[in-house]
Amino acid sequence: MLFNSFVFIFGFLPIALFLVWAVAGRGALTKWTLTALSLFFYAWWNPKYLPLLAFSICFNYWVGTQIERCCENGQRRSSNMWTAFGVSVDLAMLGYFKYANFALDNANLLLGTNYEIGRIALPLAISFYTFQKIAYLIDIRRGEARKTGFTDFALFAAFFPQLIAGPIVHYSEIIPQLKSRAFGFIRSKNLMIGLVIFSIGLFKKTVLADTLSAYANPLFNEVSGREIDFVGGWVAAVTFTLQLYFDFSGYSDMAIGLGRMFGVKLPLNFHSPLRATGIIDYWRRWHMTLQRFIVSYIFQPLSLPLNRYAAEKRLTGWSQFAVGIGIPTFITFVAVGIWHGAGWTFVLFGVLHAGYICINEVWRENQKHRRRRRKKQGLPIREASALQIAGYQAVTLCAIAFGNVLFRAASVSDAMEIWHGMAGLSGITAAGWSTLGLGVLAYSAIGILIVALFPNTQQLMRNYDPAYNWDEWKGVSPPRISLVWRPDIKGLIFGALALLLGILFIQRGQAIFLYFNF
Question: How does it sit in the membrane (predicted)?
């Protein structure tokens, strides 16, 4: 079931709100009602994979109890073994459904064999709920989470607003809210704030993202056998980048809004990433819950021992950088690429962004060194001007758009064709302007202006504590045009228009969210 569908907006959502309201304050009954609704929501797409989700919930709860029992008894080795077992089973499930065909196809190509296992369909949301469970098991082992009752855990794992495509939530963020006495009561304030956030997300998805997709898809689908010029290549890359941002951030807004309607604050997933001044800054703001997962559970466990090794071997300069930063960064971002999809385009996407990160890290260290030198010399330390910041943002956006060609292209060869055009190797001409038409250029320009100048959703709703971790981000990247939503006539008209336009644009067709494919 899609958030951007009539059956969800006019059917499932009001029924779910009514049923939870009807059993509010009844403890386990309230939670099991919402859990059952969440499982129904998941099964609507394809009931075939509901048993897999149920197994994941039950299995990880059981393993979590074993890990905590071992920790309480001081059995560190046993707790590590249980954690490794649980994580291995989770990864094995994900690997089979998502990567078995890719691995076998490449093995056949390499060995000249022709083994077949048939096409394995990807269960909806498996990448997201697998990472959520892995984080839970590791947090239990680290003592950062404590086992709760199965009722709370089942709802934490299945809660429908975040189930399909995140945010990837942590136990410590959700369980205390589920245990609160206020949970389950549908408050008018939460309903209003949640509906406005949901409406903004719906507008982003149906009005902006789906319209941009109508321009981006033909540009990418017609690559084969067609020469891509400079303008066409860059318009394709930038248009898709905007589509991807509005699509996924729109979904995340809708998820956060839905959670708020039920009294649960979900964490932020985006904070104006296309206003980032560097790739490191971009990854802090893009798919933030995935970023913290890879930092906590992949990068840091790799980086810390490698940095100790570099210190023991007294490595310096580029050798120290390669061991302490380069190796863990490349491994981490290859994992990020593969998480997004089983294909060489995603592997190369990860490699490219790892290279970006390393270049950005070198540049940042150079800037720090220059500031220290100026301070030592008694010279003033100049802050970046508005023009310089705009330049950093433009360069970062271009790098992101360049990399997103791999994210969207059907094959590496198609990506190379588009890059060929973006580099001007097919000629830097104005032909692209006439063949593309004004629509794509105008819509892309509008998209860039929105992300560059206007507040993001949580900034617009900043007076109402819009997300779980809003306090950490409310001072970051203030918009050039400051707007604040208030529950007055203007605010109500704004929310109603966003919802109405979002619903009207659904009539063009209910396009799935891009991250449903992952």
Answer: Multi-pass membrane protein
Q: How far apart are CA 169 and CA 128, in angstroms?
A: 9
Q: How far is CA 252 from the centre of its chain?
A: 8
- CA triplet 94, 147, 266: central angle to 5 degrees? 65
Omega cis (within 30) before 167: yes
Q: Which one, of 458, 461, 486, 460, lies nearest residue 473 by Cα?
A: 458
Which of 349, 361, 368 is CA-nearest to residue 303?
361
Contact 267, 238 (CB under 8 A): no
As a whole number, mean pLDDT of residues 285-305 equals 94
> What confidence tens digit (pLDDT) does each residue in 212-239 have?
998 888 888 877 667 788 888 899 999 9
Q: Which two tokens stand for residue 237?
A: 């890359």
pTM of full prediction above 0.85 = yes
Evaluate the CA torsion angle 102, 105, 108, 110 in order and state its sign: negative
The answer to whether the CB of 439 falls within 8 A of the CB of 211 is no
Active site residue 340: yes
DSSP 8-state class, residue 1 = -
- Residue 168: pLDDT over 90: yes
Is 434's pLDDT higher than 60? Answer: no
* Tokens 């220290």 belong to residue: 372
Which of 170, 287, 340, 353 does the annotation list as catalytic?
340
Residue 13: CA atoms inside 13 Å, Cβ hemisphere, count? Answer: 23
